[in-house]
Amino acid sequence: MQLRFSPSMRSITISSSNSGGNGNGCGGDLMKIKLAARQFSYRALFHTILILSFLLPFVFILTALITLEGVNKCSSLDCLGRRLGPRLLRGSDDSGRLAKDFAKVLNQVNSEKVPENLKIPNSFHQLVSEMKENKYNSKDFALILKGMMEKFEAEIREAKFAELMNKHFAASALPKSIHCLTLRLTDEYSSNAYARRQLPAPELLPLLSDNSYHHLVVSTDNVLAASVIVASAVQSSQNPEKIVFHVITDKKTYAAMHAWFALNPVSPALVEVKGVHQFDWLTRENVPVLEAVESHNAIRNYYHGNHIAGANLSITTPRTFASKLQARSPKYISLLNHLRIYLPELFPDLDKVVFLDDDVVIQRDLSPLWDIDLNGKVNGAVETCRGEDKWVMSKHFRNYFNFSNPRVVKNLDPDDCAWAYGMNIFDLHAWRKTDIISTYHTWVKENLKSNLTLWKLGTLPPALVAFRGHVHPIDPSWHMLGLGYQNNTNIENVKKAAVIHYNGQSKPWLEIGFEHLRPFWTKYVNYSNEFIRNCHVLE
Which residue among 52, 418, 500, 506 has the highest number of C-beta atoms inside a 10 angstrom radius? Predict the structure, then answer.
């Protein structure tokens, strides 16, 4: 690119640097500016040169781009303008128009059904191949695309429901390693007299009903879970010599549970192991409702039957389906799960106990719980209708009961605050003055009569009704919930909580447990124990 001034300074000529005369190349004069003599001024000339010095580099770059693209026959500014104009103004880009046209076609087929006989490609590669071979029009292509999307969405949905079913079965099953532990300990109980020794020692039996001690009750058939609860409580206590554990289990697990605590004492704390068959009060006459729950065919089919049958998965969301599966966990018809409602009768000499679920870990001294003034109430519990975690701490009665049922509407308020089972301080002395147990029985009977239409989920709903007016809220830091179904649990809050609760399907002893939350539980597993090692627990 060259800039030439005439000797008289009356004209300026702009030409390409590879000027070739009047040939057909890109050379030649690109622009010629004549200046009238009477209008000539050096100031105007200076301004013109200054403007051109800014413009010419851009003209040169754009010209070079055109040359590189193969446009080598452009001998006029008009030609150059036609080439550069669209680039500067973006006026010839058809992509926007094509996108609008395609969106119009997609909107047109959105309300149309995909023909049943339409062949749907299985992959994007197959779609491209068929487009080349068949040359579909835009509408046919849009229908095929819609069919592919619907097909893939259906497959993803089916996979999600299958995943939920598999997770439900995994959560309901007992891991092979824990089953091994139970069998080996049962065998040890039958062959080793020391494993059968009395718990606690005879001289310490009076302490089991001494109200100056801190009594904790656990009801479980999981030996490993019971060992973690007891170990975590003792290690976290400032006065472990004041702790008395009452471990209640079923008949088939009793020998293994007794053997574990006989062979692994937690001195100075005391542990009593008792089977449900060893309580004289637990008879069919005293718990007729629970006998019906365990033996009722319809109830057993509901909890142990086909969970897919009768479920319209086409209108059910995965989240709703997951909730229904959790409500059908077999543990909800277990006597061990209902046992907590009979604590005043099972421990007639005790005034105050802390009841713990078997999926908790104690991280702080629980002694201050016995100093809490319940103001005449029976149940000290953490309320679950308020808190930072909106997923876990947002539970009201409407979340548990069917408020389309007339009996529920008549007797309950959907906005009443729910509270948590799993770590409760019970005043048994105050409890014995109430009708909590009979109210519990009444509502369980009504739910059975209504074919489980009052509520679906386990033992908490009837307890919410039975304990109405008898609950004293305690500080939420005492009991943190959701570690069994809340993957994004705040780790700092977990560290601060006195008791952490793995309620939900993802128990820490299962493979489906959350890896980042499991260490808070496994730190209390005795991996040096011979039975734990031989059964490869959590390896």
Answer: 500
